[in-house]
Amino acid sequence: MSEVVGATAAAEVPLVGHLTGFVDELRARGMVVGPSSLIDAAQAMQVLDLLDRRSLREGLATTLISDQMHRKVFDVVFDLWFPLGTGARTSVTELPRTSDGDVDVDAVREMVADMLADDDASEDGRLDQMIALIVDQLGRYDSTRGEAFSAYQALSQVNPQTLIARIAAAMAGGTGDDGSLGDRPGTEPMYRRAARARATDLRAAIEAETQRRMAGRNGRERVADYAVPPLPEDINFLSAGANDLAEIRRTIEPLARLLAAKLETRRRRAHRGAVDVRKTLRASMSTGGVPIELSHRRPRPGRPELVVICDVSGSVAGFSQFTLRLVYALRQQFSKVRVFAFVDTVDEVTDFFDRGADAEDFGSSMHRMITTARISTRDGHSDYGNMLKGFVEKYGESLTHRGALLILGDARTNYHDPRLGALRELTERARHAYWLNPEAHRNWGTGDSAATEYAEVIEMFECRNATQLGRAIADLLPV
Fold first, then answer.
1. Scanning 179, 274, 342, 394, which has its CA 20 to 30 A from the CA of 288?
2. Crossing angle (nearest 10°) for helices 189-218 and 164-171
């Protein structure tokens, strides 16, 4: 089967216009693609074989992607704009069936495992045909608008992750029919890793084929609304799953490097020294004693102190962890960083992170802190009022006019007294005071949220994702 690049609509639009539309879609998803990158992509398409989707994909990715963390978004958008074609794909094979005429799922799973273990099946197109048949016959269902396809329905029957042992055995030359590991071929780590990777690729291929079929039915724009994932830096902290949290975690280190350079430049160049009265008066003698130009002392940039108070209750623990990672990556910009954590009681936890701030087990430090520190002594639910009262009484002296206060949390008090007076006392002691809230601004003040009340005392900013978090850290922290 020949692979035809582009849908019918693409044939009606000049190739340059189609490429421009593809780039506009990437930009709309948050990817930065400059005019020079678009020109490079157009020049690459002049020499690439447009019937070879793999080469075309890699050529466009090389010219258009500036951050490899965006590759997943690029691949999904590419599949929608440069599909294999429209409608069902022709095939000379059929899925095995039972005597009743139904698809024999067990036999299909065996065929899939054998094809995934066979390198030739991917090269000669047999695996692609099998994927198309799986989506067409196992993923098809009748919706209120007619025929539709579901990747979840197809994957739940094939279940690629349960085929890893069989794929590994087939790659090693065994059969694995008995389903046990034992001493049979394929138990070596090398085969298991390769089999696991191919099972993951199968899942991605079934999802891509489903999106192609649905795009032909509902239109590319409608499918893109739910099929294209957000960029890692735009994933909502509060709704992120385990895989999303891993993606966000990988954005912190490069983000910290950029912010460190920006803060260091601002610290060295943006500050002006105080007015030098003596030099100003001396210079005013040439203008009749009128101080037209002010003379300043040479700036002496200092490193302020930073106090961080973070809510580590279950609802916002992920947000607090990412913010602490970012703050500790920037800690060289401050003379001292002190960290306090709370659920319903506040306790200093600086030592937990000083010991492991640079280690890969930052999450382990968070776990040890949560299980060891005295942060939950009441009912185990967030109590911002008790935290603020306790901080003023026990740690109030840690705030000075040389430092800054950063509070992290959603301001949901579980209907406890918010203790606005205690917060006001803290903001008066610190030179700068900010509150980063991972909830959307429209939800502030709803239910048990005291965000609108706290926002009248302290500057509060919405930080729902890594993009907003980085912007807030760069713009707000005094350096």
1. 274
2. 120
Q: Strand 346-348's sheet: what is its strand order?
A: 346-348, 336-342, 305-311, 403-408, 432-437, 459-462
Helix axes 220-227, 71-81, angle to 10 degrees: 160
What does the pLDDT look like over 278-316, one tens digit per residue? 888 887 777 777 777 777 776 655 567 889 999 988 878
Measured CA to CA, the distance from residue 393 to residue 426 in angstroms comes to 11
- Reply yes or no on whether the pLDDT at 352 is more than 50: yes
Which tokens hold the place of 450?
């005291």
Instruction: State yes or no: pLDDT of 259 exceeds 80.
Output: no
Which tokens go with 445?
Answer: 């003040």
Count Cα atoms within 13 angstroms, Cβ side, for 352. Answer: 23
Burial 284-297 (b: 16+ CB within 10 A, else e): beeeeeeeeeebee
pLDDT value at position 85?
Answer: 65
Tracing tokens 């706290």 back to the chain, one arrives at: 454
Residue range 230-255, pLDDT digits in tens = 998 898 888 887 788 788 888 877 87
Mean pLDDT for the stretch of residues 394-404: 86
What is the per-residue pLDDT for 172? 80
* Cβ-contact 79, 205 below 8 angstroms: no
SS3 call for 308:
strand
State the average pLDDT over residues 87-95: 64
Measured between alpha carbons, how far is residue 382 from residues 310, 317, 340, 372, 379 in Å? 11, 11, 14, 17, 9
71-81 and 53-64 helices cross at what angle (nearest 10)?
A: 130
Nearest to 307 by CA among 465, 412, 432: 432
- Among all chains, which residue has been given the structure tokens 């910009």? 333
**Burial of 279 from C-beta contacts in 10 A (0-12 / 13-18 / 19+):** middle
pLDDT at residue 439 greater than cutoff 90: yes
Instruction: Print burial letters for 403-439: b (CB count within 10 Å at least 16), e (below 16).
Output: bbbbbbbbbbbeebebbbebbbbbbebbebbbbbbbb
Distance in angstroms (rounded) separating the CA atoms of residues 462 and 312: 18
Q: Could you write out the DSSP letters of every residue in 364-376?
A: HHHHHHHHHSS--
The span from the CA of 57 to the CA of 50, in Å, is 10
